[in-house]
Design goal:
Blueprint (H helix, E strand, L loop, with lengths): L12 E5 L3 H10 L4 E5 L3 H8 L10 H11 L2 E4 L9 E4 L14 H13 L5 E4 L7 H12 L6 E4 L9 H6 L4 E4 L3 H11 L6 E4 L1 H32 L3 H9 L20 H14 L5 H25 L6 E5 L14 H11 L3 E5 L5 H4 L6 E3 L3 H5 L4 E4 L11 H7 L4 E4 L6 H6 L3 E3 L4
Parallel strand pairs: 1-2, 1-4, 2-3, 4-5, 5-6, 7-8, 9-10, 9-12, 10-11, 12-13, 13-14
Helix pairs in contact: 1-3, 4-5, 8-9, 8-10, 8-11
The structure holds uridine-5'-diphosphate-xylopyranose.
Amino acid sequence: MNETANTLSPTTRIAVVGGGYVGLVTAAVFARHYAVTTFEKSRARLDQLQAGVCPIYEPGLPELLQEGVESGRLSFAGPLSVAQHDFVFLCVGTPSNQGGAAKLEAIFEAAQAIGGNISSGTIVVVKSTVPVGTCDRVERIIASQAGGASFHVVANPEFLREGSAIDDCEHPDRVVIGARDAEAADRLAALYRKLDVPIFVCDTRTAELIKYAANAFLATKISFINEIANIAEALDVDVTEVATGIGLDHRIGREFMSPGLGYGGSCFPKDVQALRHMARSNRYRFRLLEAVTAVNRQQRVRFVQKVERVLGGLQGTALAVYGLAFKPNTNDMRKSVSVDLVRRFVRAGSEVRAYDPVVCDKAARALGPEVRICGDPYEAVVGADALVLVTEWDQFLHLDYSRIRELTRRPIVFDGRNVLDRALLEGLGFAYYGVGR
Ligand code: UDX
């Protein structure tokens, strides 16, 4: 151990457990300043990392990982060996189980292994999204293995978004540190001082709940604006203007007020369920989140019904689907709205040709053999009865829509994210259908 609160040196040693989104981004960002070892359990992923291959699509991440490795400050290893490390960041996954609760096996397994070789003075930082009380359990597990070594467990939830993960990690709105011990909080805060970010210190249980509350609130904003969109559509009002009009009130804000097909991805669906489950376990029924989930599910059903209504039935139609990733700038398809939509289209008798700028053939195969994955956006629209935009990749804003107009069988566009230029499309002769406008 080589530092006190204000004297962190480049020889500060950090272990990052887990080479997923959060682990790799955390490791790459800290390796700008400190010595970081990332521990990855999967042999295949570790091989990739050691060979200099970035296993996930995240803008800027391959370059930052390479920079870290070339500087000698970043390395990758398999078996967990955290002796003589100043900080151990737990960045393993906490997926949902059947009942909606967060699965904590990976956290507890890592805690066991950490306890086996932790040195006195180490701070274990739980970055994974974990239910309230998990840090205390992690502390007990490590203590049971640690043979008297003194250590601290601190909660430090991560708020990065896929697609802008590095920027979010380097310039967060805040860093939340939940600690029982003030000196441990100070030492972790000192680690972040290089990033010059606002820090909020609280206890571990509060920090754990802050993470769930933040994601649940953002999901609520999305479902709220989607409900307004549905009413706006019935009243012939443009919801995007309503969103701007209310978003100008700084108490409300415009962000996460983009109506569309609802939220997907690896976090919102799972974290909303986990918070509902936490409430249930404490005999509280979180009615608002039940509604948030139901609205999110209903949003895609309504969209499919709209396509069906406009086309006069889906049986025998050909649909071009633009975008498969759950959001732009990622190749992640976990809980992507696209998967559900495409399945519904196929079940209703449509032939689907899908295009995504980065989701590769292999990942898209999960959609089933009925779906043809196209290598370019123009190929997907040949003979199509409609173009359906599901993920708002920037590329889709800059396509040659007069060419697309010529290639399609029927000039109809369903814009599931309200991002296309309606006036331009209508000028070209397309019938345009957005969400709530
Ligand atoms: C989210 C949180 O933003 C982040 O703080 C947390 O750490 C992890 O979960 P992420 O899932 O990567 O990040 O992406 P985000 O940009 O939040 O989008 C989540 C989903 O909400 C996407 O499906 C997106 O399309 C949808 N969304 C977002 C909307 O439908 N409307 C919006 O206005 C914003």
